[in-house]
Specification:
Number of helices: 20
Strand content: under 5%
Shape: globular
Number of strands: 0
Radius of gyration: 23 Å
Length: about 500
């Protein structure tokens, strides 16, 4: 067995067969470690802020979490079939150059997620130091920002194998300490107050569910295949989906539920969570438990950011940037550091602009996901590897059906969402132009984020129906090329443009 390198140099190329040694169960570790952060409890407060009851919030949270990570599992199937990063495999649906359009959206989304997680880690550190009387203010935040950024960049530059080992340790450590935290805060739950919350409307309920889907699984869907590309081609599709979904959804279901109970017991938590999610939750603990909680929160947030910056580096390479993978991760790390410092020191309310940014990018990302999932479910055989890198190959340079579907679905989706943080992010008030028949931007449907679901479903249905003949023709041509390659074993591949 060959020794795995300390720093992964593999970029967006197809993973060699002898390196595909992972098991489907290995997918549990990165997804669990990245999503066990107590930050997930903050969603309990945010979901209730939609004006719905505990039981409504509980049901839509479970549905939103499980369904969104199930969609990630479907994308992960492509990683096993093609042994390449998500955005490279997306070329089969969009074309080698056409993929750069959703690829740019994906890169921006990953940058947003990793920066948000780094910001949360910095604010949590500042809050804990202040609580313990160890000092606070600008100095602590600067040190925390630099330290957090350095750890994230170092792990991301090291690459896949180092990250998987790190996530294995974090899975156990953060899991045990989080259980202790939950035991400590459960006595503070006022079940009578929780159950007295009045129910909300259907539109409010749908809005809460879409926010949960966007904040959890849909926020990771653009990198799902990155972590399954080391799986052997013989691995079961069902096992890939199962372990991906279980790893991603298990912790958030518990954390969001506890968050709902705590927020329903103490409405003051809702305001505190909006300003400093992890720091506010720290205040619920006895002094002796604050440091273990802080370490766990810090490591879990860093874990999620590591996944994001690693994958954003791969996405950057898929856009045509010709640099080594570690350098790509370093560039994204620099952007993360600058973004973290800007938000922590110059933005009074980081949650508002972030959620506004997230919902806006969530629409085209959902449209892209619908197209790629339809493409994955349509295909019966593995990808033709050379064509993923050759614009004259089977997948072409630009797939007009996918690109037009992507643009139209995004336009329709943006017309059915609004900027719910108009005061914090006035630059993003252009959406919601199709809401007139549904009551306008002030109507009940305005806050439902309906456009995200519409973009996902519409793009899936159109692609599934319109591109099926194209996919079948690609697979037939791939079989012919494979037969030619078998007949000329050891010789160059046949001309793909023939």
């Amino acid at each position: 067995m060959s020794t795995k390198p300390l720093v992964e140099t593999t970029g967006i190329e197809v993973i060699a067969p002898e390196q595909r040694t992972a098991k489907p169960a290995d997918l549990f570790k990165p997804w669990f470690a990245a999503n066990i952060s107590v930050f997930g409890m903050s969603y309990g407060a945010w979901v209730l802020d939609f004006g719905i009851s505990f039981w409504q919030a509980f049901v839509v949270s479970i549905i939103g979490i499980v369904v969104s990570f199930l969609l990630c599992g479907l994308i992960a199937i492509a990683g096993k079939r093609g042994s390449a990063p998500t955005m490279v495999l997306s070329r089969a649906a969009f074309g080698v150059h056409g993929q750069k359009v959703p690829g740019l959206i994906s890169w921006l989304t990953s940058i947003g997620w990793e920066t948000f997680l780094a910001i949360s880690a910095v604010l949590a550190t500042s809050a804990v130091f202040s609580t313990m009387g160890w000092g606070d203010g600008t100095g602590i935040q600067v040190i925390a920002a630099l330290f957090v950024s350095a750890v994230i960049v170092a792990a991301s530059v090291a690459g896949y194998h180092t990250i998987m080992k790190l996530q294995g340790f974090l899975t156990w450590f953060t899991g045990v300490v989080t259980i202790v935290y939950l035991i400590l805060v459960i006595p503070q739950i006022d079940f009578a107050a929780v159950l007295s919350t009045p129910p909300g409307s259907l539109q409010q309920t749908i809005g809460a569910m879409v926010m949960v889907m966007t904040g959890f699984g849909l926020g990771w869907i653009n990198i799902a295949a990155d972590w399954s590309r080391y799986q052997p081609r013989s691995a079961s599709d069902a096992a890939i989906v199962f372990w991906n979904t279980l790893g991603g959804a298990a912790a958030p279901i518990i954390l969001v539920t506890i968050g709902l109970l705590l927020a329903g017991s103490d409405p003051v938590l809702v305001d505190g969570v909006a300003e400093d999610p992890v720091g506010t939750l720290t205040l619920l603990l006895p002094t002796w438990a604050i440091i273990p909680f802080w370490l766990t929160a810090l490591l879990a947030l860093v874990s999620g950011a590591v996944l994001g910056i690693y994958s954003s580096g791969l996405t950057l390479l898929s856009l045509g940037i010709r640099i080594p993978r570690p350098a790509a991760a370093g560039i994204d790390g620099l952007i993360l550091t600058v973004g973290t410092i800007w938000v922590v020191f110059f933005a009074e309310d980081f949650l508002g602009p972030f959620q506004s940014f997230l919902i806006t990018l969530g629409v085209p990302l959902a449209a892209w996901a619908g197209i790629l999932i339809a493409d994955i479910l349509t295909r019966r055989v593995d990808y033709h590897e050379p064509s993923l890198f050759n614009p004259r190959g089977l997948y072409g340079s630009w797939d007009l059906i996918s690109l037009v579907t992507f643009v139209i679905s995004s336009i329709i989706g943006w017309g059915l969402v609004i900027n719910q943080f108009a005061a914090e992010a006035p630059w993003n008030n252009w959406q919601g132009y199709f809401l007139g028949p549904l009551g306008g931007k002030d109507g009940d449907w305005a806050y439902s984020n309906l456009g995200v679901i519409v973009a996902l479903v519409l793009s899936f249905v159109v692609t599934f129906l319109a591109r099926r003949p194209i996919v079948r023709a690609q697979e037939a041509r791939a079989r012919t090329l494979q037969q030619q390659a078998d007949q000329h074993d050891g010789e160059p591949h046949p001309d793909l443009s023939a």
